Amino acid sequence: MTKQQKKTVKMILSYLVIIVIGCVLLFPIVWMISAAFKTNDEIFGSIKLLPASFSFENFILGWKGAGQYTYTTYFLNSFLMVIPTTLLTLASCSLVAYGFARFNFPFKKQLFGLLIATLMLPNSVIIIPRYVLFNKLGWIDSYLPFWAPALLACYPFFVFQMVQFMRGIPRDLDESACIDGCGTFRVFWQILLPLMKPALFSAALFQFLWTYNDYFNSLIYINSVSKYTISLALRLSVDAESVVVWGRVMAMAFIAVLPLILLFFAAQKYFVEGIATSGLKG
Amino acid sequence: MKKRIIAGLLATSMLVSLAGCSGGGAASSETASTAGTSEAATSASTDSGETVTLRFAWWGGDDRTNATMEVINQFMAENPNIKIEAEYGSSDGYHDKLATQLASGTAADIVQIDPEVMPSFVATGDYFLDYSAEGFDLSKFDPNYIGQRINGNYDGKQLGLPTGIAGPALVANADLAEKYGIDFSTQYTWDQFIEWGKQVHEADPDTYLLCANKEYIANLVFFTYLKQKTGKTLFDEETKAFNYTEEDIQNCLDLIKSLYDNNVCPPSSYSSAYSNDDLQSDPNWIAGKYVCTFAYISTMNVMMAANESANYTTGQLPVMDGAQDNGWACNCPQLISVTSSCEHPEAAMKFLDYFFNNDEASKTLGCVRSVPPTEQARTVCEADGSLDPDMMEAANIVTAYGGQSNDKYSSTPESKQIIIDTIEAVSYGTVDTASAAADMYSQLSNYISAQ
Amino acid sequence: MTKAKKIHHFTKRDYSAFIYLLPWILGMLIFQLYPFLSSLVYSFCNYKITGTPEFCGLNNYIQLFTTDNEFWNSLMVTLVYTLYTVPGKLVMALAVAVFLNRNIRGINLIRTLYYIPSLFGGSVAVALLWKVMFMDTGVINSILNTLHLPSVQWLGDPSQALRTICMLEIWQFGSSMVMFLAALKNVPGDLYEAAEIDGAGKVRMFFSITIPQITPIIFFNLIMQTIQALQNFTSAFVITDGGPMKATYVLGMKLYKEGFSYFKMGYASAISWIIFIIIMVITMVLFSSSTKWVFYSDEG
After folding, report:
1. pLDDT tens for residues A263-272?
2. Could you name the CATH architecture of B168-330+403-449?
3. Inter-chain contact A129–C35, Cβ cutoff 8 Å?
C-alpha cells in the first residue's frame, strides 16, 4: 500500500466512526423531528421512525399557539432577554477573571473561595429571597433579574472558566507589554482578550443556551404573557387536563432549537480557532 | 498555593455563617413589611370612571386558554373601564410561583388554585378575600356544594369558588366490557371487580381490566376503600387523630396487593413509566388493551381521546358490601380566588360575577374546567351543546354516591406521597403488607404531628 | 509559590485589581449575599413558604439525620449518580473533542451535529423523547429484540432506572466537549513538532503533551460537573419523577419537593446546606489534589 492509499483508508475509517457515533447521538433527535409530523397515536403506539404522512400543519398551528400571542412574540422576547444577558456576562466576567488571574492582592484566595462557594448552594432555596429582593427593586415582570446579575458578574461559572483559560496563557506576554509601558487595562484589552477568543465564544454560547432554555427563573420573574420567552411558551400547551397535541409540541421544540444550532454553527470556528502560536514563541 | 485556596474556602464559609446570625432579623422584618403593604392595598378601592387593571392567572391547555381569553374579551367589551391582563401558563411550576408571589404580595388579583394546595395557603396567612363579605352573588351555587371546605369554604368564609364539579369517573371500553360480559351499569363490589380482572387477564394475557398507576391507586382506591370500610376519613380534622387503625390500613393494602397479584392492573414496573397524569400515553391504553380505568371527570375526555378507535362509556364504581360510606366523592377541579393584595376588589368581583353567573360566559367556557359548577350554567351549556354528555353523566354518578371528601390533612402532597410510596413498595413486592402498614402508620404519625 | 513571596508588599498595581473585581464585589453584595444568608437562617427555622419563619434551632438537621428515611437513600443515589455521570461525561467529552479536533472536510457540520443533543436542555421534548424511547415497548427494546437480546425495563426496574438517567446525562456531554475543543486548540503546536522530532508516537504525545497542557480545563470541567451533578435533578424530575422505588430520587429533587411541593422551605434550606457542605468538602479535596496534576502556564 502506498502512503497515499494508507491515508485514504484512514480517512474513510475516520468518517465511518464519525457516522456511527453520530447516528447513536442523533437518533433521538431524528426521532423527535419525525414526531413533529405524527399524531399522538403514532408517537406512543408505533415504533416506526417515519410518520404516516407529511403535513406541516403541526408547525403552522404550533407557531400560531393558543391565546393572544404567536411564537413570533416569544422568539423576539427570548432574544431581548438573552442577547443583553450574554453580552453583559462576557464583559463583566472577563474583567473579573482578569483581576483574579493576573493580580496578586490581599485576600485573593478568600475572595476566590467565596466566588466558587456561591456556586455550591442549590438554587431552589435561593429563589424566594432573591424574588423578594428583585421585587423590592421593582424588577418583577421585566428582564432586569437576568440583565443586572449579568452586568455585575454574578455568574461565577464563567469567571472561573475564564480564569482557567487566562492561566493557560503564559505571563511573559503581558510582562513584555508592561515593559513597553502598557497599562493593565491595555494589556487586558490588546493582549489577553484576543487570545481568549475561544473561551469568550464558548462562554457566550453557554450563557445564550442556558438563559434561553431556563424555565424556572423565567417562570418566576415574568408574569405578562406578552413578555413570555420560548421556554415558557413551549410548555403552554402541555396540560394533564386537556388533550395535548404532542406533534405540535415537538414541532415547536424543534423550531426553538434551530437558532441554537445556527448560533453554534456560526460560533464554533471561533472557539476552535487556535491562539496565534507565533505570538507565543515571541 | 492550593492550601491557601482551601483556607479561603473555609474562611468564606465561616464568614457566611457568622454573617448569617445577623441576617435573621432582616429576613423576618421584611416578610412582616410585605404583609403590611398587602393589607394596606386591600383597603384601596376602585375610582369610578378610571380604567382599572386586573391580573388573572390560571394554568391549562390550549382549549382552556382560548375559552378563557374569549370570556375576558367579552367582559372587557362590556366594561371598557376594566382591563384584564391574562397570565396563563403550564401547570408545571404554577403553584411554586403562586406561593412565591403570595409570600411577597405580588400575586395576580384573580388566581386559579388547586383545591388540595389551598389549605396550606389558608393556614399560613390571610391571602384571599371572602366572596360573601365582598357581596358576591352566590345565589346560583348550591350552598351545600360550596359550603364544603374542598370547594373553598374555610370556617364560614368563602375564600374560593369551585370552577366546576369533578371527581372520580369510570372510563370503560364498551366493546371490551361487552366481550368479557362485564356490566358496569349496575353496582358491583371490589371482590367482583377482582374476579373480572382475573377473568380478563386469563382470557388474554395482553389485556388488563384496570389501567392504573400508583398515584391513581392511592387517590382512588386507597382513600375510597378505607372510607367505605370505616365511614371516616384518614385524620380527624379537629383533633388530628388517626381515624384508621394499622389493621385497617393493612386490610386496604391487602386489597391493593391483590389488584397487582391477580393482574387486575399491570405491574408497577410497567406503569411507572406513565406516572401521575401520564396514563393517557400508555401505549396499551392507546391500543385498547384495557377494559377500564378509574380517571377523573376533568381528565376523562383526555383518556377517551387517546384511543379514538374505541367506544367509551362511563359507569358505576366499586363499593364494598356493607360500606359505611360510599367513599366516592365529588371534588373540585380548581378554585378561583381573589387575593387580598388586589387593589380593586369590586372590579374583580364584577368580572367573576360575569365569569360564573353570565350565560354567555358559561356557554363560552363549556367544560374547559370540568362540568360547570352551577345548575344554571349546566342548563345553558346543555342547551348550547357545549356540555360534554359523558362528563355530565359521570358527575351525576359520583354525586349520587355522595361520599365524603378527604380531610384537609390527608390530601396534601406530603401525606399523599407517603401513601403512594407505600403502595409502590407493596406493588413491587419488596415488603409484606403488615410491615408496609406499620411503616406507613409511623410516617403518617410523623407527618401529622408536624402539622 | 515560594516562601519569599509570603511577606509580600502589595504594590499599587496589585491594588488596582479591585477595580476589575468591582462588578463582582458589588454583584456579590447586592444579589448574592442576602439570598445566601437568608437560606442559612431559614435552615434553622420552621418556615412554610407563605408563612413567617419561626426559629427552631437544629430541629431540621436533627430530623434529617434521624427520622427521615429518604435522606440517606437520596444521598446514596446522588453519590452514585455523580460517580457515574462525572467521569462518563468527561471521558466522552474529551474523547469526542480529540476526535473532532482535526481538519477534515465537513468538520464544522459534524461538530455541530455532535453538539445538538446538548442544546435541548431539560425541555419537555427531551422528557417525552426519552420516555417513549425507553418504555417497555419502545424503540430501544425493539432494537434489542431484533438483535435477539432480551428487553430491559429501562425506567420501570428500580435497579436500572438510575443508569438510564445517567445515560441521558452523559448523552448531553456537549458543553464539556466545547471547552475541551477550545483548550485543545490552545496547545502550542511547536510542542508537538518538537516531540515528533524526538520520534514520539501519537498515543505518547497525547498523554505527555495534550493531557498536561489541558489540565486547567480538565480541572475546571471536573469541578463544575461535580458541583452540577450533586445539585442537578432535571432529568430525574421530568423522566422518572424520582422513581421507581425512589431509585432516582436525588438530593436536589428531594430538596425541591420539600420546598415547593410541601412548602417546607426551612427543611429544604437545611438539605441545601448539607449539599453545600458536601460539595465544599469534595471541591476542597479536588483543589488540594490539583497541585499534583494541574499545570498552569502562567506559573512557568
Report:
1. 988 887 787 6
2. 3-Layer(aba) Sandwich (3.40)
3. yes
